[in-house]
């Protein structure tokens, strides 16, 4: 109804606040998706910072309850929920989450304590979102060293979280390099487009500037339509 302009988005936010004690992964996944759409729309307004505060307020209680480490007897949905919640808090700039993500990322890179698979995407995305050129270089190094394609894809999907304009360009250039399989280039560009307002503009310009190469690469296939959609 809010999307159709029938009721105010404020009403939606009030309903979302009522789910603060919700334990179910599927519900949080839906809340996260809808808040993501709102956040994207609000990135073009003066309310961008306010929606980040709202995300932190809604997600921090469940984040504190779940913690960073698996508890005895929890199911796979709890692991999925932990990744979802920590990723959301990290992206929104929740300080405790960001500090812990940086600490665990450092241990992971140094080989002291390897991150579990379900925590890698949220940690990678968090440190990149609030990182600098050395963070990006470290991530590209991890990509080069990864022996499993699954890990390479995981890194490719989060590279777009970086927010400085010159680093966004570096990620876009990397997308067309030989380091990335042609079928995975779209994931990298899509990640940039979904990462930030600056990323969306840069990705759209990049697609237009490299249209001939991209079109020749994918012809009329589904990847070209997916690229335009993102």
UniProtKB/TrEMBL annotation:
An annotated Gene Ontology molecular function: zinc ion binding
Entry's transmembrane regions: none
GO BP of this protein: peptide catabolic process; proteolysis
Signal peptide positions (record): none
The organism's place on the tree of life at top rank: Eukaryota
Protein keywords: Aminopeptidase, Hydrolase, Protease
InterPro entries referenced in this protein's UniProt entry, alphabetically: ERAP1-like_C_dom (IPR024571), Peptidase_M1_aminopeptidases (IPR050344)
GO-annotated cellular components: cytoplasm; extracellular space; membrane
Record-stated family: Belongs to the peptidase M1 family.
Protein name: PSA aminopeptidase
Classification of source organism: Eukaryota, Metazoa, Chordata, Craniata, Vertebrata
């Amino acid at each position: 109804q809010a999307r159709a302009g029938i009721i105010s988005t404020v009403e939606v936010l009030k309903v979302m606040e009522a789910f603060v004690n919700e334990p179910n992964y599927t519900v949080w996944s839906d809340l996260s998706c809808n808040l993501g759409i709102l956040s994207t729309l609000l990135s073009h307004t003066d309310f961008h910072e306010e929606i980040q505060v709202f995300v932190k307020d809604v997600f921090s209680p469940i984040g504190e309850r779940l913690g960073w480490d698996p508890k005895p007897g929890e199911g796979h949905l709890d692991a999925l929920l932990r990744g979802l919640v920590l990723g959301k808090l990290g992206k929104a700039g929740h300080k405790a989450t960001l500090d812990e993500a940086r600490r665990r990322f450092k241990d992971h890179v140094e080989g002291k304590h390897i991150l579990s698979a379900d925590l890698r995407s949220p940690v990678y995305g968090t440190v990149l979102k609030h990182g600098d050129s050395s963070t990006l270089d470290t991530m590209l190094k991890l990509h080069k060293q990864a022996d499993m394609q699954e890990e390479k894809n995981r890194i490719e999907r989060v590279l777009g979280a970086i927010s400085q304009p010159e680093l966004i360009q570096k990620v876009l250039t990397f997308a067309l390099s030989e380091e990335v399989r042609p079928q995975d280039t779209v994931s990298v560009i899509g990640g940039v487009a979904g990462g930030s307002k600056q990323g969306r503009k840069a990705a759209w310009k990049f697609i237009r500037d490299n249209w001939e190469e991209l079109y020749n690469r994918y012809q009329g296939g589904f990847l070209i339509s997916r690229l335009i959609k993102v």
